[in-house]
Write a structure and sequence with these properties.
604 residues, alpha/beta, 6-stranded antiparallel sheet, 7-stranded mixed sheet, globular, GMP Synthetase, Chain A, domain 3, 22% strand
Length: 604
């Protein structure tokens, strides 16, 4: 190994001996009498007050009913539910029953029902799920998926469960800390979703280290989160992190935030929250959409940590949020840029608390042509800190060799948070787990003891020996008027006729007038030419909802590119006839299930 090749290691700490519990089942027993609060806020800001003790005891009641309905230890249970108290009972109740929860996103977009159901069938089959838990509102369309999926014995409505907290706790179910306790399907931003298989120990190590790095204190800290519970950042980072550390929590649905972003900030202000977390787009949304009148009434001085991760972090977003909400008590040292991924449970590196973010301004030409980090203008990269206790991080080239400090390569991780593998997918597992290390597919460099992320390996556009990061092109075009925020995708495409790499930029806009669309195209061309030194070969202005996104809102570059190549990229919307067919197929399947149950023994 080169003498200057950095190897970031987490602090020397006996994290295993410090764990609050050995398994998640043990954690539920530990918190069954906790008076710490969990408030659920609906879309109107109305509160449903709970305690962690109530949540755990309702979860045990839920788990006992699952067992009575025939769910066995080790069974995979797909949870297709919105964020609500019932989700907590179903998730923790599945664990209490010894089964394995498999969260999936709910079908909130009526224009994409066909796509949603295809994904659901794929997850049901890949996970080998025996059980699906849903809520009654979506029952009319679910039968279509259940009729195609293999092996689903139980289709259970959330509303049919009695979630009254039990008074006497059941005997503690023994579990192996290394046993699988959660299958978290990846968002599919660069590929088809894969089931990340996580053990009790994976989860407990990660949330323990989150709590230690954030210095969480029960009775002092309050976390506000609207992040979806079908996504690792919301489910593990926020929810599991809060119950593990025993702190108070305020929970909102993602749709509540997206419809009324101010409710997130108002909840922080009202509940005197100390901790919150969100992707970059959420901070940008608040900076641009929350009115001055609402802003003036906020008090954000209680916040000591506002984590940002899950997608590229923009310096412009940080500056805009700080400028708008700094007068309301949001300090420059509150913003905490972090790095993580589902394959490392959720979180991987944290910087030190209560410090102004370390930002490196990099020379774009040197980064693109020589893959080195040199000070200059063009790209701002946030320092994302160091790995957790018991963990290591290295930067390696395409052959797996360590690179020198300040050189860009692939980020490799090892440690107790690294997943067991992709469930029922040994080929993909072998691609990313190598000799105890996880190949993340992310690109970055280490400097001064900090990790800096520059992009994703699969997304790089390589042209004439230079590496172009699509995020840079997308961020530039997003700033233009009439472009939908978060709705620009750039990628490279090999032109067989020219035998060269083209740069393609797809831009969503609500403009319909031909001259206005032409003018936007010209502005995008001019802006990109100023950045690249040449005009991309293909810039296309598209209708809203054309680009593919994950359930958590990330752009799906590779699937979008694949559709574009075959000319199949068009606004996604099921026709009225498609929906009629879905409902009819669904009703037929539900009828068959009822008949089978009545005649003795079919699936329910």
């Amino acid at each position: 190994m080169s003498q200057t090749a950095p190897l970031l290691e987490g602090p020397r700490a006996d994290w295993h001996a410090e764990l609050n519990a050995g398994t998640l089942v043990e954690l539920l027993h530990l918190r069954a009498d906790s008076p710490r609060k969990l408030d659920y806020l609906d879309e109107h800001g109305k509160s449903t007050p709970l305690t962690w003790g109530q949540v755990c005891r309702s979860a045990f009641a839920f788990g006992q009913q699952l067992t009575k309905k025939g769910v066995q230890p080790g069974d995979r249970v797909v949870l297709m539910l919105p964020t609500c108290p019932g989700y907590l009972y179903a998730f923790f109740g599945t664990i209490a029953a010894g089964a394995i929860p498999v969260p999936v996103y709910p079908p909130f977009n009526p224009k994409q029902l066909t796509t949603f159901l295809e994904t659901l069938v794929g997850i049901l089959d890949n996970s080998g799920a025996t059980t699906l838990i849903y809520w009654n509102e979506v029952k009319p369309i679910l039968g279509h998926a259940l009729g195609r999926a293999k092996g689903v014995k139980h289709a259970l409505a959330l509303e049919d469960f009695d979630t009254t907290p039990i008074k006497e706790l059941p005997a503690m179910r023994q579990a192996d800390p290394d046993a699988t306790t959660l299958i978290q399907y990846t968002s599919g931003s660069t590929d088809q979703p894969k089931g990340v298989e996580l053990s009790h120990l994976n989860l407990l190590h990660n949330v323990h280290e989150i709590g230690r790095n954030l210095a969480l204190v029960p009775g002092v800290d309050v976390c506000v989160s609207w992040l979806p519970l079908y996504h690792d950042m919301g489910l593990i980072g926020a929810l599991l992190g809060a119950i593990y550390s025993g702190i108070d929590m305020v929970l909102m649905a993602p749709q509540t935030f997206l419809m009324r972003p101010k409710l997130w900030l108002e909840a922080i202000s009202t509940y005197r929250a100390t901790i919150t977390v969100a992707p970059n787009f959420a901070y940008n949304l608040c900076a641009t959409r929350v009115s001055d009148k609402v802003t003036a009434a906020l008090d954000l001085s209680s916040l000591r940590v506002a984590m940002c991760g899950a997608e590229p972090i923009r310096r412009e977003t940080y500056d805009a949020f700080l400028a708008k909400f700094g007068p309301q008590g949001f300090g420059p040292d509150v913003f905490l840029p972090v790095y993580g991924l589902a394959e490392s449970t959720v979180a991987a590196t944290f910087p030190a608390l209560m410090q102004v973010p370390h930002v490196r301004n990099l020379d774009r030409d040197t980064l693109e042509s020589e893959h080195r980090a040199v000070s200059g203008e063009g790209l701002a990269a946030f320092g994302l800190g160091r790995p957790f206790a018991g963990s290591r991080l290295a930067i390696r080239d395409a052959e797996g060799r360590p690179v020198d400090e300040g050189h860009v390569g692939e980020i490799w991780l090892s440690g107790p948070s690294v997943m067991k593998g992709y469930f029922r997918n040994p080929e993909k597992t072998a691609e990313v787990l190598v000799d105890g290390w996880l190949r993340t597919g992310d690109l970055g460099f280490v400097e001064g003891g900090h990790l800096f992320v520059t992009g994703r390996q699969k997304d790089l556009i390589i042209r004439n020996g230079r590496n172009y990061y699509p995020q840079d092109l997308e961020a530039l075009v997003e700033c233009l008027e009439d472009v939908r925020k978060g709705c620009v995708i750039a990628f490279g495409h090999h032109d067989a006729k020219r035998q060269s790499e083209e740069i393609v930029v797809l831009v969503e806009s609500r403009l319909t007038d031909a001259e206005a669309v032409k003018a936007l195209h010209a502005r995008a061309s001019e802006a990109l030419a100023g950045l690249l030194g040449f005009t991309p070969e293909r810039i296309e202005i598209l209708k809203p909802h054309t680009l593919l996104k994950t359930s958590s809102g990330k752009l799906r570059r590779k699937p979008t590119q694949a559709r574009w190549v075959v000319g199949a990229l068009a606004p996604r919307s099921d026709s009225v006839m498609d929906k009629i067919k879905l409902v009819a197929s669904s009703q037929l399947h539900w009828g068959k299930r009822r008949l089978a149950a009545l005649t003795g023994g079919g699936p329910r």
